[in-house]
Amino acid sequence: MNRSISYKNGTKADTGWPCSRSFREQLQGNLDSFTRCEVKQPPGSMRFAAVAVTVIDFRHQGNLAGLGEQRDDSAALILTRRSPMLRSHAGQWALPGGRIDPEESPVETALRELREEVGLHLTRDNLMGLLDDYVTRSGFHITPVVFWGGTVGKLQKNDGEVASIHRIPCSELARQDAPLLENGVVPGRQVLYMPVGNTVIAAPTAAVLFQFREVAMFGKSSRVAHYDQPYFAWK
Predict the structure, then answer these.
(1) Structural domain contains residue 189
(2) Structural domain that includes position 61
(3) 201 inside domain
(4) Alpha carbon distance 13, 71 (integer Å)
């Protein structure tokens, strides 16, 4: 039976998201039924990148205030805080990822970045599917790649790129107060945030998390390309 956890602001989240075979099958079935939107860009007009949306076990390694009660075997996603020493997007929340090298596919890039940033070695056998492309204000064309990691031991951060690694329970994505929307600088284009613990994560990372929730967890076909980013994430 699913349980729920309560937060100080009165919202609740379902905790019935175990890192189990049945949850993997649920995610896989929903992703298989999803037709993603691929953004076509003229050659040379964008910097292409891929990010890894990786489902693993929680193991009480979220290291983040306000997550509420969680089981070790709860399903979670890997998120990082970018190093404050990086030239762009320093200190921001991010999924493991980076630029697509010549001759690489988005899947190959996401696998490489998982190894380089958090020390997780997966293969194409772990691939579950792809979400919609998202074009950022800073000129990146991002392809989110979903992997099943399952039970995973200690992750090792790359100190040159990553300030900290966090396991964010999938139950956080299911919170009743998610997503958070506010008006942006462009009329009619809202900025999207996802609340996690006692903090919030902004788009573009929040847009990927929200679509993972809607598509993979809930079986919907929600789109996110129309959501904007806060001004601090434009550069």
Answers:
(1) no
(2) 4-172
(3) no
(4) 14
Sign of the alpha-carbon torsion through 119, 59, 168, 217 = positive
Tokens of 74: 């709860």
CB 144 within 8 A of CB 208: yes
Q: How many domains does the chain have?
A: 1
- Residue whose token pair is 């434009």: 234
Give me the CATH number covering residue 143.
3.90.79.10
pLDDT by residue for the chain (235 residues), tens digit each?
A: 233 433 334 444 455 699 999 999 999 999 999 999 998 766 566 789 999 999 999 988 777 888 877 888 999 999 998 775 655 655 689 999 999 999 999 999 999 999 999 999 999 999 999 999 999 888 889 999 999 999 999 999 998 889 999 999 999 999 999 999 999 888 888 999 999 999 999 999 999 999 999 999 999 999 999 999 987 765 6
Question: Does the residue 188 lie in any domain?
Answer: no
Extract the runs of DSSP E, i.e. beta strands, from the chain: 4-6, 12-14, 47-57, 75-82, 93-94, 97-99, 127-130, 134-135, 140-150, 162-169, 180-183, 190-196, 199-202
Among the residues of 100-211, which ranges form H helices?
106-118, 170-173, 205-211
* Domain contains 223: no
Cα separation of 184 and 55, whole Å? 31
Q: Which amino acid is at 161?
A: E
